[in-house]
Amino acid sequence: MIRILHTADVHLGRRFPSLRDRGREYRNQLLDTFERVLQLAVNENVSLVLIAGDLFDTNRVHGVTVGKVLSAFRKLEERSIRVCILPGGHDAFTEDSIYRFVHFPSNVTVLTTERTHVTFDDLDLTVYGRAFDDKLVGENPLRSLSLDRESGIHIGMAHCSIKRAGMIETDSMVLDRGEIASSGLDYLALGHWHSFQDHSQGSTVAYYCGSPEPIDMDQKGSGSVAMVNIRAKGDVKVDRVRVGTKVFDAMSIDIGVATSVEQIVSAIEAKADAHLVLEVTLEGLRNMDCDTNAEEIEDALRDRFFSLQVLDRSHPALREIESEGLPEETVVGKFVKIARERIAQADNKKDEALYREALGLGFALLHGKSEIIE
To answer: Which domain holds residue 122?
Structure first.
C-alpha cells in the first residue's frame, strides 16, 4: 500500500492585520502547524507528501520561515519521504518566484511550467502538475499533461477552482468536472479552496484537503489534511485528518431587539473559546435605551477568545434622529431635512423604505460611524 499525505494552502508568511496584536502569533502558528503536518507524515510512515499550491503566502517570505521549512523537509529526507510542491496563486511560478531561488533538499521536487511531472520508480507512481504563472489565467491545469504509461499509478496536482455554471467560470485556473473524469488520474490533489471537499469524478478520486489552519473568516471547513491510501489501482481511500488548532467564526447580533448591553455581551460570551477567532457584527436599528460601544465590548471579552473583533454596523432608528433637533444650517441638519422630504414624497413603500434606510445610514456616517460601510 502507498500512503500519501496531501496538504495545500498553508500560506506561510501571511500577515493578519485583522487580528491586531495576535497577528504575529497566528503567523507563527501557521509555521508550527505545517511542521506538525510533516511530523504526521513521519508518524504515519507515508511515502510521499503533496503540497498542492500556496505553501507560501507570497514570493517574498522572510529567511527564518524558509529556513524552518527546509529544516522540516530535511527531516523527511532522513526518512526517505519524498515531497512534491506545486506553486499556486500566491507563490506563483513567476520571474520572481521563491522556487527559482531557494535550494530545496534532494527529496523535494518542485513542479514548474517546464517540469510538469516526476516519476518514482520504487513506488511505480508518477506525479503530474502545471504550476500557475501570470500567463495561465483561466487555463485548465490538466491540459497537455501526458500520462507516463510505464507507471502503474498516476497522481495529479492542481491549484484551481472547479467550474460551476453561473457561479464560478473564471479564476486563475479552472477545471471542469468532465476534465477530472477524463484525466486518467488515480488521485487528483486539489488546492486553492480552503475547506475539505470531495470532487471525485468517474474513476478519478479528487479532493481539496483544505488549509491546515483557517486563513479567513468564512473558512469553516479548514484545519485538515488528506491522508490518501492506495492499495491498488482503482482502490483509493481518502481520510480527513484534523491538524488545525484555531477556528474562525462570525456572528451577527440585531441590537434593535436587545434590551440591554448585558444581553449583547452574554450572547457573545456564550461562544467563548481560547482557540476561537470571532468576528461579531452589530447590525439593525439602534435602540435608544441600549447604548452600545463596540470597543468597550471587545475590551470586556477580549481575554475569552484567541481574537475578538466587534464591528458596529448598526444605524439609528428614525425616532432617534427625529429627537436630535438638528439646526438646518448644519451639514447633518440639511441632510436630515432632505432625506425626510424624500420619505414624505415617496410614491411607494419600497422607495419610502429605501429613503428611511439612507437617512439612518447617512446620519450614522455623518456622526463618524464609518465602519458601517464594507
So the answer is: 2-242
